[in-house]
Amino acid sequence: IAAVDGADPSEGVHAFLHVNAEEALATAAAVDADRAAGVAMPRMAGVPIAVKDVVVTQGMPSTAGSRILEGWIPPYDATVTRKIREARMPILGKTNMDEFAMGSSTEHSGYGPTRNPWDLERIPGGSGGGSAAALAAFEAPLAVGSDTGGSIRQPASVTATVGVKPTYGGVSRFGAIALASSLDQLGPCGRTVLDTALLHEVMGGHDVMDATSLDEPVPAVVEAALAGAAMDLTGVRVGVVKEISGEDGGFQDGVKQRFEESLDRLRAMGAETVEVSCPSFEYALAAYYVILPSEASSNLAKFDSVRFGMRVEKETIEKTMLATRAEGFGDEVKRRIILGTYALSAGYYDAYYGSAQKVRTLVQRDFDAAFAQCDVLVSPTTPTTPFKIGERIDDPLAMYLNDVATIPANLAGIPGMSLPAGLAPEDGLPTGFQILAPAHEDARLYKVGAALE
Ligand code: GLN
Protein backbone atom coordinates (compact mmCIF):
# COMPACT_ATOMS: atom_id res chain seq x y z
CA ILE A 1 0.00 0.00 0.00
CA ALA A 2 2.76 2.43 0.95
CA ALA A 3 4.37 1.91 -2.45
CA VAL A 4 1.24 2.44 -4.55
CA ASP A 5 -0.79 4.70 -2.34
CA GLY A 6 0.61 6.38 0.74
CA ALA A 7 3.92 7.55 -0.64
CA ASP A 8 2.97 10.78 -2.39
CA PRO A 9 -0.48 12.30 -1.90
CA SER A 10 -0.28 13.99 -5.29
CA GLU A 11 -0.11 10.64 -7.08
CA GLY A 12 -2.30 7.57 -7.32
CA VAL A 13 -5.47 6.96 -5.36
CA HIS A 14 -4.27 8.29 -1.98
CA ALA A 15 -6.76 6.24 0.01
CA PHE A 16 -4.55 6.06 3.10
CA LEU A 17 -3.32 8.75 5.48
CA HIS A 18 -1.29 6.29 7.51
CA VAL A 19 -0.04 2.81 6.63
CA ASN A 20 0.34 0.47 9.58
CA ALA A 21 2.58 -2.00 7.78
CA GLU A 22 4.70 -3.37 10.59
CA GLU A 23 1.88 -4.08 13.01
CA ALA A 24 -0.38 -5.52 10.27
CA LEU A 25 2.34 -7.94 9.18
CA ALA A 26 3.01 -8.95 12.78
CA THR A 27 -0.71 -9.65 13.37
CA ALA A 28 -0.88 -11.69 10.17
CA ALA A 29 2.22 -13.69 11.12
CA ALA A 30 0.82 -14.44 14.58
CA VAL A 31 -2.45 -15.64 13.03
CA ASP A 32 -0.51 -17.87 10.62
CA ALA A 33 1.54 -19.35 13.45
CA ASP A 34 -1.52 -20.03 15.62
CA ARG A 35 -3.40 -21.51 12.71
CA ALA A 36 -0.49 -23.85 11.95
CA ALA A 37 -0.46 -24.86 15.63
CA GLY A 38 -4.17 -25.67 15.49
CA VAL A 39 -5.29 -22.84 17.84
CA ALA A 40 -9.03 -22.03 17.53
CA MET A 41 -9.65 -18.52 16.29
CA PRO A 42 -12.38 -16.09 15.30
CA ARG A 43 -13.90 -16.46 11.85
CA MET A 44 -12.36 -13.28 10.42
CA ALA A 45 -8.84 -13.83 11.81
CA GLY A 46 -6.19 -12.79 9.32
CA VAL A 47 -8.52 -10.79 7.04
CA PRO A 48 -6.96 -7.33 6.63
CA ILE A 49 -8.98 -4.17 7.14
CA ALA A 50 -8.66 -0.43 6.61
CA VAL A 51 -10.08 1.99 9.20
CA LYS A 52 -11.49 5.44 8.51
CA ASP A 53 -9.37 8.03 10.29
CA VAL A 54 -12.36 9.24 12.34
CA VAL A 55 -12.05 6.08 14.47
CA VAL A 56 -9.34 6.25 17.11
CA THR A 57 -6.62 3.64 17.09
CA GLN A 58 -4.20 3.39 19.99
CA GLY A 59 -0.62 3.97 18.90
CA MET A 60 -1.62 5.05 15.37
CA PRO A 61 -2.30 8.63 14.23
CA SER A 62 -5.99 9.54 14.20
CA THR A 63 -6.68 12.91 12.60
CA ALA A 64 -10.27 12.72 11.29
CA GLY A 65 -8.78 14.32 8.18
CA SER A 66 -7.98 17.53 10.06
CA ARG A 67 -4.72 19.40 10.43
CA ILE A 68 -5.80 20.33 13.95
CA LEU A 69 -5.19 16.70 15.01
CA GLU A 70 -1.96 16.26 13.10
CA GLY A 71 0.49 14.25 15.16
CA TRP A 72 -2.05 13.19 17.81
CA ILE A 73 -1.63 9.56 18.81
CA PRO A 74 -4.65 8.41 20.82
CA PRO A 75 -3.87 6.64 24.11
CA TYR A 76 -6.86 4.29 23.71
CA ASP A 77 -8.82 2.25 21.17
CA ALA A 78 -12.35 2.87 19.96
CA THR A 79 -14.65 -0.04 20.77
CA VAL A 80 -14.75 -0.92 17.08
CA THR A 81 -10.96 -0.92 16.92
CA ARG A 82 -10.82 -3.18 19.97
CA LYS A 83 -13.31 -5.59 18.40
CA ILE A 84 -11.28 -5.68 15.19
CA ARG A 85 -8.13 -6.45 17.13
CA GLU A 86 -9.94 -9.14 19.14
CA ALA A 87 -11.11 -10.64 15.85
CA ARG A 88 -7.41 -10.73 14.93
CA MET A 89 -7.87 -8.75 11.74
CA PRO A 90 -4.66 -6.94 10.69
CA ILE A 91 -5.28 -3.18 10.52
CA LEU A 92 -3.69 -1.98 7.28
CA GLY A 93 -3.93 1.70 8.14
CA LYS A 94 -6.11 4.79 8.39
CA THR A 95 -8.11 6.04 5.45
CA ASN A 96 -8.54 9.57 4.15
CA MET A 97 -11.75 11.52 4.67
CA ASP A 98 -13.28 14.95 4.51
CA GLU A 99 -12.22 16.90 7.57
CA PHE A 100 -14.33 15.74 10.56
CA ALA A 101 -16.51 13.89 8.03
CA MET A 102 -17.93 17.08 6.54
CA GLY A 103 -18.26 16.62 2.81
CA SER A 104 -19.32 14.44 -0.09
CA SER A 105 -16.08 14.19 -2.05
CA THR A 106 -13.04 13.83 0.27
CA GLU A 107 -11.78 17.10 -1.23
CA HIS A 108 -12.18 18.74 2.18
CA SER A 109 -9.48 16.56 3.73
CA GLY A 110 -6.67 18.55 5.34
CA TYR A 111 -4.22 16.16 3.64
CA GLY A 112 -5.19 16.35 -0.03
CA PRO A 113 -8.00 14.56 -1.88
CA THR A 114 -8.45 10.86 -2.55
CA ARG A 115 -9.07 9.91 -6.19
CA ASN A 116 -11.65 7.50 -7.53
CA PRO A 117 -9.94 4.31 -8.80
CA TRP A 118 -12.49 4.17 -11.66
CA ASP A 119 -11.20 7.52 -12.97
CA LEU A 120 -8.44 9.36 -11.13
CA GLU A 121 -9.85 12.73 -12.23
CA ARG A 122 -13.01 12.07 -10.24
CA ILE A 123 -14.06 12.11 -6.59
CA PRO A 124 -14.43 8.83 -4.63
CA GLY A 125 -17.39 10.25 -2.69
CA GLY A 126 -17.27 11.47 0.87
CA SER A 127 -16.73 11.81 3.57
CA GLY A 128 -15.41 8.25 3.61
CA GLY A 129 -13.79 8.38 0.18
CA GLY A 130 -10.59 6.80 1.48
CA SER A 131 -12.29 3.64 2.75
CA ALA A 132 -14.33 3.20 -0.46
CA ALA A 133 -11.35 3.91 -2.72
CA ALA A 134 -9.20 1.41 -0.79
CA LEU A 135 -11.82 -1.26 -1.55
CA ALA A 136 -12.31 -0.30 -5.19
CA ALA A 137 -8.54 -0.20 -5.78
CA PHE A 138 -8.17 -3.65 -4.16
CA GLU A 139 -5.89 -2.17 -1.50
CA ALA A 140 -8.09 -3.65 1.24
CA PRO A 141 -10.92 -6.22 1.23
CA LEU A 142 -12.85 -4.57 4.07
CA ALA A 143 -13.03 -1.13 5.64
CA VAL A 144 -14.68 0.74 8.48
CA GLY A 145 -16.75 3.82 7.64
CA SER A 146 -18.91 6.38 9.41
CA ASP A 147 -22.24 7.66 8.16
CA THR A 148 -23.81 10.85 9.48
CA GLY A 149 -25.62 11.84 6.31
CA GLY A 150 -24.44 9.26 3.80
CA SER A 151 -20.67 9.07 4.22
CA ILE A 152 -20.65 5.27 3.96
CA ARG A 153 -23.37 4.85 1.32
CA GLN A 154 -22.48 7.70 -1.02
CA PRO A 155 -18.79 6.69 -1.44
CA ALA A 156 -19.94 3.06 -1.92
CA SER A 157 -22.26 4.22 -4.70
CA VAL A 158 -19.65 6.13 -6.68
CA THR A 159 -16.95 3.44 -6.36
CA ALA A 160 -19.18 0.39 -7.04
CA THR A 161 -18.63 -1.08 -3.58
CA VAL A 162 -21.00 -2.01 -0.75
CA GLY A 163 -21.57 0.11 2.36
CA VAL A 164 -23.98 -0.18 5.26
CA LYS A 165 -25.14 2.35 7.82
CA PRO A 166 -26.50 0.19 10.65
CA THR A 167 -29.46 1.13 12.86
CA TYR A 168 -28.47 4.03 15.14
CA GLY A 169 -26.96 2.44 18.23
CA GLY A 170 -26.20 -0.86 16.51
CA VAL A 171 -22.45 -0.22 16.45
CA SER A 172 -20.70 1.52 19.34
CA ARG A 173 -19.59 5.11 18.73
CA PHE A 174 -17.13 5.05 21.63
CA GLY A 175 -13.87 6.34 20.20
CA ALA A 176 -15.41 7.68 17.00
CA ILE A 177 -14.51 11.37 16.78
CA ALA A 178 -17.97 12.96 16.91
CA LEU A 179 -19.44 15.04 14.08
CA ALA A 180 -23.17 15.16 14.95
CA SER A 181 -23.84 12.74 17.76
CA SER A 182 -27.56 12.17 17.10
CA LEU A 183 -26.82 11.22 13.47
CA ASP A 184 -23.37 9.55 13.55
CA GLN A 185 -23.14 5.80 13.02
CA LEU A 186 -20.12 3.62 12.30
CA GLY A 187 -20.62 0.84 9.77
CA PRO A 188 -19.02 -1.79 7.53
CA CYS A 189 -17.76 -1.37 3.95
CA GLY A 190 -16.86 -4.23 1.59
CA ARG A 191 -16.82 -5.36 -2.01
CA THR A 192 -19.66 -7.86 -1.60
CA VAL A 193 -22.78 -7.98 0.53
CA LEU A 194 -21.61 -11.11 2.37
CA ASP A 195 -18.18 -9.61 3.16
CA THR A 196 -19.92 -6.54 4.53
CA ALA A 197 -22.20 -8.71 6.69
CA LEU A 198 -19.20 -10.56 8.12
CA LEU A 199 -17.64 -7.24 9.16
CA HIS A 200 -20.97 -5.95 10.51
CA GLU A 201 -21.04 -8.95 12.82
CA VAL A 202 -17.54 -8.13 14.12
CA MET A 203 -18.31 -4.43 14.69
CA GLY A 204 -21.81 -4.60 16.12
CA GLY A 205 -23.26 -5.23 19.54
CA HIS A 206 -23.95 -3.58 22.88
CA ASP A 207 -21.28 -1.43 24.52
CA VAL A 208 -21.50 0.06 28.01
CA MET A 209 -19.11 2.82 26.90
CA ASP A 210 -21.74 4.29 24.54
CA ALA A 211 -24.92 5.51 26.23
CA THR A 212 -26.86 5.26 22.95
CA SER A 213 -25.74 1.70 22.22
CA LEU A 214 -28.64 -0.72 21.72
CA ASP A 215 -28.80 -3.47 24.32
CA GLU A 216 -29.73 -6.22 21.91
CA PRO A 217 -27.89 -8.87 19.87
CA VAL A 218 -26.34 -8.01 16.50
CA PRO A 219 -28.99 -8.68 13.84
CA ALA A 220 -28.51 -11.96 11.94
CA VAL A 221 -26.88 -10.23 8.99
CA VAL A 222 -24.65 -13.08 7.81
CA GLU A 223 -27.55 -15.55 7.75
CA ALA A 224 -29.62 -12.96 5.87
CA ALA A 225 -26.90 -12.45 3.25
CA LEU A 226 -26.63 -16.21 2.75
CA ALA A 227 -30.43 -16.51 2.48
CA GLY A 228 -30.55 -13.66 -0.04
CA ALA A 229 -28.03 -15.38 -2.28
CA ALA A 230 -30.76 -17.95 -3.08
CA MET A 231 -32.41 -15.10 -5.04
CA ASP A 232 -35.94 -15.82 -3.93
CA LEU A 233 -37.79 -12.70 -2.78
CA THR A 234 -41.31 -14.10 -2.84
CA GLY A 235 -43.51 -12.13 -0.46
CA VAL A 236 -41.07 -9.23 -0.03
CA ARG A 237 -42.72 -5.83 -0.51
CA VAL A 238 -40.39 -3.16 -1.88
CA GLY A 239 -41.41 0.51 -1.71
CA VAL A 240 -39.97 2.90 -4.27
CA VAL A 241 -39.74 6.29 -2.60
CA LYS A 242 -41.15 8.77 -5.10
CA GLU A 243 -39.37 11.84 -3.70
CA ILE A 244 -35.84 10.40 -4.01
CA SER A 245 -36.13 8.15 -7.04
CA GLY A 246 -35.41 10.59 -9.78
CA GLU A 247 -38.89 11.74 -10.73
CA ASP A 248 -38.26 15.27 -9.57
CA GLY A 249 -35.20 16.06 -11.63
CA GLY A 250 -31.51 16.33 -10.81
CA PHE A 251 -31.01 12.60 -11.37
CA GLN A 252 -28.78 11.51 -14.24
CA ASP A 253 -30.41 9.36 -16.96
CA GLY A 254 -28.05 6.41 -16.51
CA VAL A 255 -28.65 6.43 -12.75
CA LYS A 256 -32.40 6.22 -13.32
CA GLN A 257 -31.99 3.52 -15.97
CA ARG A 258 -29.86 1.26 -13.77
CA PHE A 259 -32.27 1.83 -10.89
CA GLU A 260 -35.24 0.73 -13.02
CA GLU A 261 -33.32 -2.34 -14.16
CA SER A 262 -32.63 -3.27 -10.52
CA LEU A 263 -36.37 -2.98 -9.80
CA ASP A 264 -37.07 -5.33 -12.73
CA ARG A 265 -34.63 -7.82 -11.24
CA LEU A 266 -36.30 -7.60 -7.82
CA ARG A 267 -39.67 -8.32 -9.46
CA ALA A 268 -38.18 -11.23 -11.40
CA MET A 269 -37.11 -12.74 -8.05
CA GLY A 270 -40.67 -12.55 -6.74
CA ALA A 271 -40.66 -9.21 -4.92
CA GLU A 272 -43.63 -6.91 -5.23
CA THR A 273 -42.84 -3.24 -5.89
CA VAL A 274 -45.11 -0.36 -4.92
CA GLU A 275 -44.66 3.40 -5.09
CA VAL A 276 -44.69 5.20 -1.75
CA SER A 277 -44.60 8.89 -0.98
CA CYS A 278 -42.64 10.57 1.80
CA PRO A 279 -43.69 14.21 1.42
CA SER A 280 -41.46 15.58 4.22
CA PHE A 281 -38.31 14.42 2.47
CA GLU A 282 -38.48 17.68 0.55
CA TYR A 283 -37.33 19.44 3.74
CA ALA A 284 -34.97 16.74 5.04
CA LEU A 285 -31.82 18.17 3.47
CA ALA A 286 -32.50 21.64 4.87
CA ALA A 287 -33.24 20.24 8.34
CA TYR A 288 -30.08 18.14 8.26
CA TYR A 289 -27.92 21.13 7.35
CA VAL A 290 -29.24 22.95 10.44
CA ILE A 291 -29.04 20.01 12.88
CA LEU A 292 -25.62 18.82 11.75
CA PRO A 293 -23.81 22.18 12.04
CA SER A 294 -25.50 22.81 15.40
CA GLU A 295 -24.24 19.57 16.89
CA ALA A 296 -20.88 19.87 15.13
CA SER A 297 -20.25 23.39 16.45
CA SER A 298 -20.69 22.02 19.96
CA ASN A 299 -18.67 18.82 19.41
CA LEU A 300 -15.75 20.71 17.87
CA ALA A 301 -15.45 23.14 20.77
CA LYS A 302 -13.10 20.68 22.45
CA PHE A 303 -10.36 21.41 19.92
CA ASP A 304 -9.03 24.29 21.95
CA SER A 305 -5.25 23.94 21.56
CA VAL A 306 -5.01 22.67 25.14
CA ARG A 307 -6.24 19.09 25.08
CA PHE A 308 -5.34 17.60 21.69
CA GLY A 309 -3.13 18.08 18.68
CA MET A 310 -2.02 21.34 17.17
CA ARG A 311 -1.10 24.44 19.19
CA VAL A 312 -0.24 27.82 17.70
CA GLU A 313 1.42 29.62 20.61
CA LYS A 314 0.47 33.31 21.14
CA GLU A 315 0.81 35.83 24.02
CA THR A 316 -2.44 34.87 25.77
CA ILE A 317 -4.48 31.67 25.99
CA GLU A 318 -7.42 33.31 24.16
CA LYS A 319 -5.15 34.29 21.29
CA THR A 320 -3.59 30.83 21.27
CA MET A 321 -7.04 29.22 20.98
CA LEU A 322 -8.11 31.57 18.22
CA ALA A 323 -4.92 31.14 16.23
CA THR A 324 -4.97 27.34 16.62
CA ARG A 325 -8.56 27.04 15.44
CA ALA A 326 -7.99 29.55 12.63
CA GLU A 327 -5.03 27.57 11.33
CA GLY A 328 -6.13 24.04 12.23
CA PHE A 329 -9.65 24.00 10.77
CA GLY A 330 -10.36 24.10 7.05
CA ASP A 331 -12.96 26.30 5.33
CA GLU A 332 -15.82 23.79 5.33
CA VAL A 333 -15.42 23.13 9.05
CA LYS A 334 -15.39 26.87 9.78
CA ARG A 335 -18.47 27.37 7.62
CA ARG A 336 -20.38 24.78 9.60
CA ILE A 337 -19.19 26.02 13.00
CA ILE A 338 -20.44 29.49 12.06
CA LEU A 339 -23.78 28.14 10.77
CA GLY A 340 -24.27 25.96 13.84
CA THR A 341 -23.36 28.66 16.34
CA TYR A 342 -25.80 31.01 14.64
CA ALA A 343 -28.61 28.43 14.57
CA LEU A 344 -28.17 27.74 18.28
CA SER A 345 -27.87 31.35 19.39
CA ALA A 346 -30.42 32.95 21.72
CA GLY A 347 -33.36 34.30 19.78
CA TYR A 348 -32.75 32.05 16.76
CA TYR A 349 -32.79 28.66 18.42
CA ASP A 350 -36.54 28.03 18.00
CA ALA A 351 -36.69 29.39 14.48
CA TYR A 352 -33.85 27.22 13.15
CA TYR A 353 -32.92 24.32 15.40
CA GLY A 354 -36.47 23.91 16.76
CA SER A 355 -38.00 23.88 13.27
CA ALA A 356 -35.39 21.43 12.01
CA GLN A 357 -36.19 19.06 14.86
CA LYS A 358 -39.87 19.22 13.90
CA VAL A 359 -39.00 18.28 10.33
CA ARG A 360 -37.00 15.40 11.73
CA THR A 361 -40.12 14.09 13.45
CA LEU A 362 -42.11 14.44 10.21
CA VAL A 363 -39.44 12.44 8.33
CA GLN A 364 -39.67 9.72 10.96
CA ARG A 365 -43.46 9.64 10.58
CA ASP A 366 -43.15 9.38 6.80
CA PHE A 367 -40.89 6.36 7.25
CA ASP A 368 -43.33 4.78 9.74
CA ALA A 369 -46.17 5.17 7.26
CA ALA A 370 -44.09 3.80 4.39
CA PHE A 371 -42.85 0.80 6.36
CA ALA A 372 -46.43 -0.01 7.35
CA GLN A 373 -46.89 -0.90 3.67
CA CYS A 374 -43.46 -2.34 2.76
CA ASP A 375 -40.59 -4.44 4.10
CA VAL A 376 -37.86 -2.28 2.57
CA LEU A 377 -37.68 1.06 0.75
CA VAL A 378 -35.40 1.71 -2.20
CA SER A 379 -33.94 4.57 -4.26
CA PRO A 380 -30.78 5.39 -6.19
CA THR A 381 -28.06 6.19 -3.61
CA THR A 382 -26.80 9.31 -5.36
CA PRO A 383 -28.35 11.44 -8.09
CA THR A 384 -25.24 11.26 -10.32
CA THR A 385 -22.13 9.23 -11.03
CA PRO A 386 -18.88 10.62 -9.48
CA PHE A 387 -18.18 14.20 -10.51
CA LYS A 388 -14.79 15.69 -11.38
CA ILE A 389 -12.42 16.80 -8.63
CA GLY A 390 -12.81 20.56 -8.28
CA GLU A 391 -16.20 20.71 -9.99
CA ARG A 392 -18.28 21.52 -6.88
CA ILE A 393 -15.66 22.64 -4.40
CA ASP A 394 -16.70 26.31 -4.59
CA ASP A 395 -20.41 25.54 -4.52
CA PRO A 396 -21.40 24.14 -1.11
CA LEU A 397 -25.07 23.87 -2.08
CA ALA A 398 -24.31 21.69 -5.11
CA MET A 399 -22.16 19.55 -2.81
CA TYR A 400 -24.94 19.26 -0.20
CA LEU A 401 -27.52 18.25 -2.84
CA ASN A 402 -25.62 15.02 -3.34
CA ASP A 403 -26.96 13.80 -0.01
CA VAL A 404 -30.65 14.13 -0.84
CA ALA A 405 -31.32 10.38 -0.87
CA THR A 406 -29.05 9.34 2.00
CA ILE A 407 -29.89 11.92 4.70
CA PRO A 408 -33.45 10.82 5.61
CA ALA A 409 -32.15 7.52 7.06
CA ASN A 410 -29.85 9.36 9.47
CA LEU A 411 -32.62 11.70 10.60
CA ALA A 412 -34.74 8.66 11.44
CA GLY A 413 -31.94 6.42 12.79
CA ILE A 414 -32.84 3.58 10.41
CA PRO A 415 -30.39 1.26 8.61
CA GLY A 416 -29.41 1.66 4.95
CA MET A 417 -27.23 -0.06 2.38
CA SER A 418 -25.75 0.99 -0.94
CA LEU A 419 -24.68 -1.64 -3.42
CA PRO A 420 -23.51 -1.42 -7.04
CA ALA A 421 -26.28 -1.03 -9.63
CA GLY A 422 -24.08 -1.11 -12.74
CA LEU A 423 -22.21 1.50 -14.76
CA ALA A 424 -24.15 4.38 -16.30
CA PRO A 425 -24.26 3.87 -20.07
CA GLU A 426 -23.47 7.51 -20.87
CA ASP A 427 -20.18 7.77 -18.93
CA GLY A 428 -19.26 4.23 -17.89
CA LEU A 429 -19.12 5.24 -14.21
CA PRO A 430 -20.65 3.53 -11.14
CA THR A 431 -24.23 3.98 -9.98
CA GLY A 432 -25.62 2.80 -6.65
CA PHE A 433 -28.81 1.20 -5.39
CA GLN A 434 -29.97 2.13 -1.89
CA ILE A 435 -32.04 -0.15 0.38
CA LEU A 436 -33.57 1.13 3.64
CA ALA A 437 -35.21 -0.93 6.41
CA PRO A 438 -37.00 -0.15 9.67
CA ALA A 439 -34.86 0.32 12.81
CA HIS A 440 -33.43 -2.97 14.14
CA GLU A 441 -34.20 -4.73 10.84
CA ASP A 442 -30.69 -4.46 9.37
CA ALA A 443 -30.90 -8.11 8.28
CA ARG A 444 -33.48 -7.19 5.60
CA LEU A 445 -30.90 -5.03 3.82
CA TYR A 446 -28.57 -7.99 3.50
CA LYS A 447 -31.23 -10.38 2.25
CA VAL A 448 -32.43 -8.06 -0.50
CA GLY A 449 -28.90 -6.82 -1.23
CA ALA A 450 -27.45 -10.31 -1.60
CA ALA A 451 -30.32 -11.29 -3.90
CA LEU A 452 -29.70 -8.29 -6.11
CA GLU A 453 -25.91 -8.53 -6.18
N1 GLN B 1 -22.16 14.85 2.92
C1 GLN B 1 -22.55 14.80 4.30
C2 GLN B 1 -22.09 16.05 4.98
O1 GLN B 1 -21.29 16.71 4.43
C3 GLN B 1 -21.99 13.56 4.86
C4 GLN B 1 -21.65 13.56 6.30
C5 GLN B 1 -21.32 12.22 6.83
O2 GLN B 1 -22.06 11.25 6.61
N2 GLN B 1 -20.25 12.15 7.59
O3 GLN B 1 -22.53 16.40 6.04
Automatic annotation (TrEMBL):
Q: Which domain of life is it from?
A: Bacteria
Record GO biological process: translation
* Residues of the Amidase domain: 1-445
Q: What GO MF terms are annotated? A: ATP binding; glutaminyl-tRNA synthase (glutamine-hydrolyzing) activity
Q: A single GO CC term, please?
A: glutamyl-tRNA(Gln) amidotransferase complex
Q: Which NCBIfam families match?
A: gatA (TIGR00132)
For this protein, the record's HAMAP family field holds: GatA
> What job does the chain carry out?
Allows the formation of correctly charged Gln-tRNA(Gln) through the transamidation of misacylated Glu-tRNA(Gln) in organisms which lack glutaminyl-tRNA synthetase. The reaction takes place in the presence of glutamine and ATP through an activated gamma-phospho-Glu-tRNA(Gln).
Specify the protein name. Answer: Glutamyl-tRNA(Gln) amidotransferase subunit A
Gene coding for it? gatA
